[in-house]
């Protein structure tokens, strides 16, 4: 097993996701049906808004983790499908609330739901989808699974609150950043993988898959955070700079500041303050993150978590599904190249 | 059984709630312990904010309905306590999100949580408490109960979204108003009473208590809506006028406008538009609601629902708990006098 990822072409990376989707195509189709069916409501705004965000071109990464984890250790069932749909609804609900909290008008380069329907509808439809997720979880017939997802949801909220508080702490320690990432992103990846295994009726590999999911989530979010500064090579596009504009302290900034000169630190101090940030500061921030090697160092941190994720899979039986989970760990990191 | 409530003094009304609290004192103490314990979090803002709202002097009406419903048909248990605490957390989460959606800075005459900690923290701590509610529901060991509360939560969100859409419809039909009230308030009262019964292990009286709870919720909210215009007698205080300032269309307004002159309707049209509402409009609105008899008519509508609530109790065995539920229906209406 290779622990360090082998950089692949963009096309090859795209094909990893497509290959995974093909691997669980029937399961994924069942989940898509559930998502469409359960986002419905007789109240007009709800299906419009929830349909917009649920079908807004997400890769269905979290439900795929659930489905493939289940296939890797047993067989998927209607319970697995309900669970995977619930995981996606919980994710969608947090996206809707995040966009309100982050004051961001774009999501994946498209207008955020709140930019179309407003903050109020986004809050309430988030609540609606979150409640629907628990209706779906009842269909797994497992109080254990339900409890795991409820706990993951409290952990996500705790992570978001910590992140909010951290906005004011410009000298955020790396450990605090990682704790936030583990809570706001790792917790749902962890629960998605673990409960996927549990939905097959066996708990045998659930703990290993929980470890896989948590570390995968960390790798995924850390890469997301470096991609928000253009990764290691990309030119600055319109999907770059959200975190910077929101003055979020992420790993590339933490490292760039730590390695920077006094002058650099003065820059970060001013630029990451919403009252003093200027339009042209983003370009200089990207420059410093590249020049100090912070982008590369951030990717290496993600690689370490991806390696831990893959390591956790060792105890699983060899199968195309285990291979797919390994590939997914590579995929999470390779997006940065 | 008297269907029309007998107006009582304020002291007598206060003592109804105190008598109910005394009737289930031990159960209520167990619920309070759970509320304090489960609102805790290592993340600093969460216990501060959730403690503020959870202990902000609510009457614990909904958990009391759960506890007394259970006692009326069987015995309370740890499951009932977990359920009652979950019901209060769901209610608290919706309050936090409502205050953000309604843009109101006061809640029960005290600063709303969002006025102290901000909208963002209120959204996220609402999510946290909502997730914690589902952890508590797992402890009921009943997927049926869990499903009922998840469904009630979706219905509440649907009601809130309908209410949001109705702000723009100044000619809101009475039926639409009632549908909104049934969803946003009736659904949780209904589930609180029904699942209280279910938590005793018997479904025998669950349907009757569901009917009781739904109609009680309607009576309660309709009275709340007339109290927001000072009820039938109260002078205008600082807890009056929230709905008016938010341009919410409630029953007193619907009736006052229907019964009013063309001139009155012109007034309502202008005054219930956030762009044209003036400071002194509230006093005239209160005057019209009294002068047209809309306040009395609104109270009568609530009395009809309170009577339906009491009627639903007929099939229950006679006990001090059934009496308490009847008294509670009276209490809901008598607050208006």
From TrEMBL, chains A, B:
The keyword Ligase does not apply. It holds the Pfam family polyprenyl_synt. One of its GO terms (molecular function) is metal ion binding. Keywords: Magnesium, Metal-binding, Transferase. InterPro entries: Isoprenoid_synthase_dom_sf, Polyprenyl_synt, Polyprenyl_synt_CS. One of its GO terms (biological process) is isoprenoid biosynthetic process. The keyword S-adenosyl-L-methionine does not apply. Its cofactor is Mg(2+). Belongs to the FPP/GGPP synthase family. This is Polyprenyl synthetase. It comes from Hyphomonas oceanitis SCH89.
């Amino acid at each position: 097993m290779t622990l360090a990822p082998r950089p692949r072409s963009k096309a090859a990376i795209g094909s990893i996701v497509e290959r995974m989707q093909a691997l669980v195509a029937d399961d994924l189709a069942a989940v898509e049906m559930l998502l469409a069916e359960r986002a419905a409501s007789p109240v007009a705004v709800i299906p419009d808004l929830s349909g917009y965000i649920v079908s807004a071109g997400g890769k269905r990464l979290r439900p795929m983790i659930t489905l493939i984890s289940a296939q890797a250790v047993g067989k998927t069932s209607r319970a697995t499908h309900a669970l995977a749909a619930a995981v996606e609804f919980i994710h969608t609900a947090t996206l809707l609330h995040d966009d309100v909290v982050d004051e961001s008008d774009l999501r994946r380069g498209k207008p955020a739901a709140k930019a179309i329907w407003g903050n109020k509808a986004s809050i309430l439809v988030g609540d609606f989808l979150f409640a629907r997720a628990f209706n779906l979880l009842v269909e797994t017939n497992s109080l254990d699974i339900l409890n795991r997802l409820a706990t993951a949801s409290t952990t996500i909220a705790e992570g978001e609150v910590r992140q909010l508080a951290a906005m004011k702490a410009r000298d955020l320690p790396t450990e605090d950043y990682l704790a936030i990432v583990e809570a706001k992103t790792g917790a749902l990846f962890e629960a998605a993988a673990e409960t996927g295994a549990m939905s097959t009726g066996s708990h045998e590999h659930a703990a290993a898959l929980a470890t896989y999911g948590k570390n995968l989530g960390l790798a995924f979010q850390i890469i997301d955070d470096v991609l928000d500064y253009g990764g290691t090579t990309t030119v600055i596009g319109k999907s770059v700079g959200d975190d910077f504009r929101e003055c979020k302290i992420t790993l590339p900034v933490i490292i760039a500041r730590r390695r920077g000169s006094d002058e650099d630190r003065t820059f970060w101090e001013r630029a990451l303050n919403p009252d003093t940030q200027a339009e042209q500061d983003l370009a200089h921030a990207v420059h410093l993150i590249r020049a100090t090697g912070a982008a590369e160092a951030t990717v290496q941190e993600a690689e370490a978590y991806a390696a831990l994720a893959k390591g956790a899979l060792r105890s699983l039986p060899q199968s195309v599904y285990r291979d797919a989970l390994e590939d997914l760990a590579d995929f999470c990191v390779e997006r940065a190249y």
